[in-house]
Write a structure and sequence with these properties.
The protein is an alpha+beta fold. The protein is built from five helices and eight strands. Bound molecules: coenzyme A.
């Protein structure tokens, strides 16, 4: 069970089924879902079903100033196989469109990395579609550096993206 974490402007807390309407604000928005591995949701009810069954371990990011749920994300041991993935923790995130470029993702991701570090994680990896550079900028601001190209597919197989992979090994956290 993931804990609740407080940062300067956000509360990170587990998502619940009651968040369906708020989560649909970005999972139903193609500008946000374009490079995610899931397809755009068509209703809050569909989101509710996902929240009931598949969202454990995912934080919702609540903006402290107005209590609005503005995004979500997670971090965990990377499930890709092979030596390259050994012991690396991967993370992901998404935010409602009207909250982009205000530093929220960097703030939330640093908090997730700090939590993982306190759980013993030292190696971190993430990737973003080449055409989605804002996500790479977040990775850089969190201390990761470009390590090579890869690719990933949407879960429904509808498209494949060339990606940039970022990694870091932190003996001590730089924040
Ligand atoms: C990627 C995403 C999570 C970033 O969230 P955010 O809260 O806007 O991120 P931050 O404000 O912390 O940082 C964004 C950085 O990207 C930069 N940026 C924005 N658009 C950019 C672009 N087209 N090219 C390069 N950098 C860009 C911003 O200037 C900022 O960097 P700066 O602080 O040095 O100026 C958000 O855009 C999003 O939800 N996208 C849709 C979902 C998604 O793509 N998730 C990631 C999948 S890998």
């Amino acid at each position: 069970m993931i804990p609740t974490i407080e940062t300067e402007r956000l509360i990170l807390r587990p998502l619940t089924v009651d968040d369906a309407e708020a989560v649909f604000q970005w999972t139903g928005d193609e500008r946000v879902t374009k490079y995610m591995n899931y397809s755009t949701y068509s209703s809050a009810e569909q989101v509710r079903e996902w929240l009931e069954n598949g969202s454990s371990g995912i934080w919702g990011y609540v903006r402290k100033s107005d209590g609005l749920l503005i995004g979500s994300g997670n971090i965990g041991l990377d499930k890709s196989s092979g030596e390259e993935a050994d012991g690396f923790w991967g993370f992901g995130y998404c935010f409602r469109y009207d909250c982009w470029n205000q530093g929220y993702c960097t703030e939330a991701t640093k908090a997730m990395i700090k939590y993982a570090y306190e759980c013993g994680a030292r190696k971190f990896v993430s990737q973003h579609a080449v055409d989605n550079p804002a996500s790479g900028r977040v990775m850089e601001k969190c201390g990761l550096t470009f390590s090579g190209y890869g690719s990933y597919k949407k879960m429904d197989g509808s498209c494949e993206f060339k990606s940039k992979v970022y990694r870091a090994v932190f003996e001590e956290l730089p924040y």
